[in-house]
Design brief:
single chain; 301 residues; mainly alpha; globular; disordered N terminus
Length: 301
């Protein structure tokens, strides 16, 4: 019999006696029977079953989580469009309102003032809706009020012919700037929608307003009455020129007013041709392709 200590077993005289570890020393791995996880085990990836049991992975039937490094980058938040962007419906409303202002206010001083203010506001809104460059918009915001106030002062304190000429010139200038900006913006629409249609109609109405201003300016510069049916000392009003312009551009046929001078007649012919070409090309194409996306041009070699 041998002792229960750490002595040598019988028959082994040369065996070295085993000594107990010091009380403060940590026992070797596996000495106390408790499994100590090695560092390499901590770095080992877990199987799906182990992850589910440990609570760190998806449960049964749940999709497996995608690592952050493999996840697709999130799209940046969409930029908020500028205020009044593509608001051509509102521009159309202001244009129609300006026609009624001309009809109601007449050619008196306050009527011309109100008509110019409404037309200037329409031009500014058309530029804002077309999202022109900030530099151009700043120039417009600085020049349109100054030119409008100067035209109002000349129309109030000047002679009647001067007032008519200044009003017609300013109206022609304003209705030339707005269609250019609208056409440039509408041409960049990737999807042809109702705003595209409203923009095309606004350009059509502005063309009629431009020729109405040119008719009025022709009458002032010519000295005689523009219309054959209106004899001096009577003078045609702004609404007469606008009425004649829309009668011409829509080709519904002349009735109570016709141009008597050569320049006026040629302007009327030009307006009729341009109006019909615009309707059968631009407006018809927009209507036929409403809701469709533009075709992208193939990359050039």
């Amino acid at each position: 019999m041998y002792s229960k200590g750490f002595g040598a077993a019988p028959g082994f005289p040369c065996a070295r006696p085993r000594t107990a570890p010091p009380p403060c020393a940590s026992p070797p791995v596996g000495y106390s029977g408790v499994y100590v996880m090695d560092e390499s085990d901590d770095m080992r990836p877990q199987t799906p079953a182990e992850a589910a049991l440990s609570g760190t992975g998806p449960g049964p039937g749940e999709p497996e989580a995608v690592p952050e490094s493999d996840a697709l980058p999130e799209d940046p938040p969409a930029e908020k469009p500028p205020r009044f962007a593509d608001s051509y419906g509102l521009v159309l409303v202001l244009l129609i309102a300006s026609y009624f202002v001309m009809a109601v206010a007449g050619d008196y001083h306050y009527g011309r003032m109100l008509s110019l203010v409404v037309l200037a506001a329409t031009t500014w809104l058309a530029l804002r809706a077309s999202q022109v460059q900030r530099r151009v918009l700043r120039y417009a915001m600085a020049l349109i009020p100054v030119i409008t106030l100067a035209a109002i002062a000349l129309s109030v304190f000047g002679s009647d012919n001067l007032a008519r000429g200044v009003t017609a010139t300013l109206a022609a200038f304003l209705v030339v700037v707005a269609p250019v900006a609208i056409v440039k913006r509408v041409a960049t629409h990737m999807v042809i929608n109702m705003n595209t249609f409203y923009g095309a109609i606004c350009v059509y109405l502005l063309i009629a307003m431009f020729f109405a201003s040119m008719f009025a300016l022709t009458g002032v510069l010519g000295g005689d009455s523009f219309f054959a049916q209106i004899k001096p000392p009577n003078k045609a009003s702004a609404i007469d020129f606008l009425y004649f312009s829309f009668t011409t551009i829509t080709t519904v046929g002349y009735g109570d007013l016709t141009a008597q001078g050569g320049v006026g007649r040629m302007l009327a012919v030009l307006e009729a041709v341009l109006g019909q070409l615009y309707l059968i090309t631009v407006v018809s194409l927009v209507v036929q392709n409403l809701g469709q996306a533009r075709r992208k041009k193939p990359p050039s070699d």
